[in-house]
Design brief:
By secondary structure, the chain is an alpha+beta fold. About 35% of the residues lie in helices and about 30% in strands. Helix 13 packs across helix 14.
RNA sequence: GCCGGGGUAGCUCAGUCGGCAGAGCAGCUCACUCGUAAUGAGCAGGCCAGGGGUUCGAGUCCCCUCCCCGGCUCCA
């Protein structure tokens, strides 16, 4: 008998096994159910296949499919099966890389003669994958020397490149150092399918969960736009049919909420071809929402002590040379206009203008912090492929502010800003926030190390006091300074990056900004760029998706539709509309001339109007209305008009 | 920008092999006057994204441009 080893389990218990016992056997010894559910395991925190034998004392945790780690294993294994299916169906196909990703997996391929996959191919590939699953091919791990690996994948150039690139700290795709691991799927009537992989994998193909191939897309090899574009197939894979169905349902839900679709349905905005890509016009319905958003923003900024400024849409090249934009972001700017011997550029940012406002007279430390605010419209020549409804446009309006302060004030200013951001975002019904601190980029940045360190530290200090959870994005800062971005989660759990607070030591230097300190000497202020909505367009799109178009009453383009039951109720209905409008609500009458009551109710509901009031004989007599609140399927009859007005007023005031 | 897929009435879409441009909804007119998610009848509505080409003939085939969609890359 082999030497005994002691295995520690996640519940703290310890069991003895003989050396050489496999992880699968350990799972089986714990319980029949676990043995059946197990697809991989962790040994001292490292993932491993179930067939791996253990020859030393260790902590072991069994991975089942219904865990995050389990699903990752399932997805990765499913990607292998897809690669096998593709190489079966498309002889000569090269397979590159195929990881598990959120909700699924993908695999990148290069087909012979530059061929492409089409939608029908996905069905064929999926059918072949199901055959492979039925064949119950085992996943067999093997470790080979680097040279043997290179020989094994001699006709797979992308695999060769991966092996050649493996470095000691690169543990993403294959094993470490000189030994690499491969997985084989033996099969009848052909050589085993073999792929380079770190593993672990499910024991055999029959253990895969339900999956579905979703779409085919181009993707650059190694994410580098100078490298060849490969054919990527995306799939989704889950541990149960119910989980797959849930996922597909979530996708449908996201589609249902798509702001581009709702924007057309509710007549909020459009992108006429005549304007050019990424340039929107706001229709009256969308414009009402935007105006309410902007009015709210202005009122709150005024209350928070901001000074309002305005600036033009273009400026001479000298401004952008001083600011550094022409050096760093000329590609993203609309091209110049030559006039009267000068060169003008549409503005991609508002900051240089605000800097000029600051610099318009000598500042005293007593004035600081100076907070300049503008709903400033900027133009950025985004690459055509990135445009996406109102979420990514070429012309947009930022709720932009630049705050100039003394270095000693920076933490306080940032704290105050974080409070302000959260207040504003909460007012729109968002409740879940996360922050991200971005530090100095490795390339393409300006400024002294000491400045960067000081600014970054100030961000950390400010956020510690805010109660926000945060993560650090190394090297993701702007070229002129580090930043905090605020992300939020919407009604279906999607995460959106919105607000940004950016510290900037560079622009004050470039524009030689000064203030006179208490010591009567000149000092350089620090500047903080910040936008809370980010851009009005983007925030509006997120709002539309968050509420699926059913905006809360204070934002809804139309708050009340009043429907007289028959012509003889028109006068009474009109009095109600009149009163609502006089009290500052957005109400409209739809008379009985053309359509039945049912049809008018239906249309008002489709317009997602918060309240549909129906008035008939009983109401005209009693001074009441029939109230249909959005989201409720049972109408309230005989509600006194005063009560309804009070209710709507409270809802709007409270932004409920 | 790159790869793939698209663009036909306001919207959603059909249009076969190259042979008269279609439907539903929306709109307008008329009738209906109705208590809660589609009353009926009728009428209009088109540079088939734009331009060029092939052809006796192009929504359909070819080329270019614009725009949209899904990804990749990018996002000061």
């Amino acid at each position: 008998m082999a030497d005994p080893i002691t295995i520690k389990l996640p519940d703290g218990s310890e069991r003895e096994y003989s050396s050489g016992t496999t992880l699968g056997e350990i799972a089986a010894s714990i319980g029949k159910g676990l043995a059946k559910a197990a697809i991989a395991a962790k040994v001292d925190g490292e993932r491993a296949d179930l067939e791996r034998p253990i020859d030393h004392d260790a902590s072991v945790a069994i991975i089942t499919a219904d865990s995050d780690e389990g699903r990752e294993v399932l997805r990765h294994s499913t990607a292998h099966v897809m690669a096998q299916a593709v190489t079966d169906l498309f002889p000569g196909a090269k397979y590159a890389i195929g990881p598990a990703i959120e909700d699924g997996f993908y695999y990148d391929f290069e087909l012979p003669d530059g061929a492409h996959f089409n939608e029908d191919d996905l069905e064929r590939i999926e059918a072949r994958m199901r055959e492979i699953v039925q064949a119950d091919q085992p996943f067999e791990r093997e470790e080979v020397e680097r040279d043997a690996g290179l020989a094994l994948f001699a006709d797979q150039p992308y695999k060769v490149e991966i092996i050649e690139r493996v470095e000691p700290d690169d543990s993403t795709e294959v094993g470490e150092g000189e030994v690499i691991s491969v997985y084989r799927n033996p099969r009848d009537g052909a050589d085993p399918f073999v792929d380079l992989c770190r593993g672990p994998h499910v024991p055999s193909t029959k253990r895969l969960g339900p999956f579905k191939l979703m779409k085919v897309a181009g993707a650059y090899w190694r994410g580098d736009e100078r490298r060849p574009m490969l054919q990527r197939i995306y799939g989704t894979a889950w541990d149960s049919k119910a989980a797959l169905a849930d996922h597909l349902h979530r996708l449908e839900e996201a589609e249902r909420r798509d702001h581009r679709k709702i924007g057309t349905e509710l007549d909020l905005f459009s992108f006429p071809d005549e304007l050019g890509a990424g340039l929107a016009i706001w229709h009256p319905n969308g414009a009402i929402v935007r105006r309410v958003m902007e009015d709210f923003s202005r009122a709150e900024h005024e209350r928070a002590g901001y000074d309002f400024v305005f600036s033009p849409h273009i400026a001479r090249s000298t401004l952008w040379e001083t600011s550094g934009h022409l050096d760093f972001y000329a590609d993203g700017m609309y091209p110049p206009m030559e006039l009267e011997g000068a060169t003008y550029y549409p503005k991609p940012m508002n900051c240089p203008f605000h800097i000029l406002v600051y610099r318009s007279h000598l500042r005293s430390y007593r004035e600081l912090p100076v907070r300049l605010f503008e709903l400033g419209t900027v133009y950025r020549f985004e690459r055509s492929g990135v445009l996406h409804g109102l979420l990514r446009v070429r012309g947009m309006t930022q709720d932009d502010s630049h705050i100039f302060c003394e270095p000693t004030q920076i933490v306080d200013v940032l704290r105050e800003l974080l409070d302000f951001v959260l207040f504003i975002l909460r007012a729109f019904g968002f409740t879940e926030f996360e922050a991200e601190i971005s530090t100095r980029p490795k390339e393409k940045s300006i400024g002294a190390d000491a400045d960067w360190e000081m600014a970054t530290q100030a961000l950390f200090d400010a956020i510690e006091g805010s109660g926000l959870s945060y993560e650090v994005a190394e090297g993701e800062g702007a070229f002129y300074g580090p930043k905090i971005d605020i992300h939020l989660r919407d009604a279906i759990g999607r995460r959106w990056q919105l607000s940004t607070l950016q510290v900037d030591f560079q622009e004050p230097q470039r524009f030689e900004l000064e203030y006179v300190g208490a010591d009567n000497e000149r000092h350089q202020p620090i500047m903080i760029h910040r936008a809370l909505f980010g851009s009005i367009e983007r925030f509006f799109a997120i709002l539309v998706e968050h509420y699926a178009g059913a905006l809360p009453s204070w934002l809804a383009p139309k708050q009340v539709t009043v429907l007289p039951v028959a012509d003889r109720h028109d006068a009474y209905a009109f009095r109600i509309v009149d009163r609502l409008n006089a009290e500052g609500f957005r109400a409209e009458l739809v008379d009985a001339a053309a359509d039945s009551l049912g049809a008018r109710v239906r249309r008002a509901k489709q317009e997602k109007v918060p309240y549909v009031l129906v008035v008939g004989d009983e109401d005209a007599d009693a001074g009441s209305v029939g109230v249909n609140a959005r989201g409720s399927d049972k109408p309230e009859r005989g509600v006194p008009v005063d009560d309804f007005v009070a209710r709507l007023a409270a809802e709007v005031t409270e932004r409920a």
